[in-house]
Design brief:
Layout (H helix, E strand, L loop, with lengths): L5 E7 L6 E9 L6 E4 L1 H6 L9 H11 L16 H8 L16 E5 L12 E5 H10 L1
Antiparallel strand pairs: 1-2, 2-3, 4-5
Length: 137
């Protein structure tokens, strides 16, 4: 995070009711433009970097995370359970109704635990059967 330049209080309301909002003067982490952010906005930031606009944020993050391995949400590089289950069968079809359009197939966790991605716990269902499975419980 860029070091704060100074704190500034802005007064709102009449002379009887005064509301002070405190802002910190910072610099945009991408272009260096001076910006004002409240302590709450600074606290919400996961990286500590502050930007003047979404354009600056996207520009900076696109250069930082050009390779997906550098992305903070990249964990282990393991394949997703959907791809693993679909590749484990020769012709993936819905196990309830036989629908075979791969774009409309979902993976259902039989025990309801999304972290249990064993192939025995995963069931290939079409979108409609998957919805019915969750609505019936």
């Amino acid at each position: 995070m860029v070091a704060p330049l100074l704190w500034e209080q802005i007064k709102f309301g009449s002379s009887k009711t005064k509301l002070y909002i405190v802002f910190m003067n910072l610099q945009c982490a991408n272009c260096g433009k001076e910006i004002k952010k409240s302590p709450a906005q600074i606290k919400r930031s996961k990286t500590g970097n502050m930007y003047c606009s979404r354009k600056c944020s996207a520009s900076k993050n696109n250069t930082l995370f050009k390779k997906w391995i550098n992305h903070p949400q990249y964990k282990t590089g393991e394949r997703t359970y959907r791809k693993t289950k679909l590749d484990s069968v020769k012709n993936p079809i819905c196990e309830k109704c036989g629908f075979d359009n791969i774009l409309a197939l979902d993976i259902h966790h039989k025990d309801g635990n999304r972290k249990n991605n064993n192939l025995d716990n995963l069931q290939i269902l079409c979108c409609n059967c998957h919805r019915l499975e969750h609505r019936s419980n």
